[in-house]
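Troubleshooting entry. Yesterday's outputs looked truncated, so today I'm pasting the complete records for two proteins to confirm everything comes through intact. If either block looks cut off, that's the bug. Protein one:
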Amino acid sequence: MQTIVYPMNLPTAPPPLNSPTAPPRQTLQPPTQPGEWSLQQIQDALKRPLPPNLLCRIKERGNAQYLPWYRTIQILDKYCLGWSWEIRHLQLSSDRLFLIGRLSVPTRDGLVYREATGTEELKREVFNKSTGQREAKELAYGDPSSNAESMAFRRASAKFGLALYLYEK
């Protein structure tokens, strides 16, 4: 299979899901085998607004919506048969983990991929009032490598159009 890298398209975002101008969701018959659809067909399917029940919210970031990694997988399994994910590069600093991941999708036009970065803080320096000293605090929520991979995976998926409109501010 030939590898084709396409330049990034910069589509306009669809109207918000609760907007009166938002188009109704149409039933779309997914592909039945890998490589059946063109890149354009895949992007058109992935760019559609998502039902609100698939999205989660981050309270710490102004109640921002996001698509969790496990739901991203479900959508890719439906519309991007044969997709694959790989970690291309991993690097550690004293307080952060950085990685680059690649999402590859077989299309009628060949194998197409998008790469994205993910990062996660490993520890944070905080001031301890009781001792009067600065201390390195391990961050408690989740595993840093899983969090960074999830970020890169969701970003790479957004580069194919999946939930891209959620990244607009």
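Protein two, checking that the full record survives here as well:
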Amino acid sequence: MARSGMNGARGIGAGLLACILLAGCATTAGPQVDLEQVQRDAARAYQQQRYELAERDYRLLTEHLPTEAEPWFRLGNIYARTNRPREAARAYHEAVVREPALSRAWYNLAVVRLRQAGHALVELTRHSLPEDPLNVRAEQLADGVFRLLGERRADTAPQPGPESGP
């Protein structure tokens, strides 16, 4: 009886060792990513305003370096410059969650949200009835927001394409 207990323990030990080895193989399978090279490629593409390539590389960096703020910040800039304000705001938010003292990300997040507010106010005046009492106030607020940003007010929602910005 003791002998069969010993064989059972050996069987469990061998099975456990096989699982560990297989798990190790599963996690190391596939090509290794040279994160320093990805960072250099992303920075170069970003500087050259090749935002599609830069976005791909910065997204990869956010997956492999989940606690780093800088890739999220750069993604926010890419999204802001390619007129994707919702994505920009989300990326800047992710950056400040990871690094609360990153003032550049807070500033850019505020600018993106101010633009969104200005465009929402413009849309309010476009879609509400002319006699709506909020129209006058929305016009004033929209003018103030765009003046604060140092930007020309557009009478329509933003169109796709590059924008000046953060």
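Both blocks look complete. Sanity check on protein two: The domain at 35-149 is CATH 1.25.40.10 (Serine Threonine Protein Phosphatase 5, Tetratricopeptide repeat).
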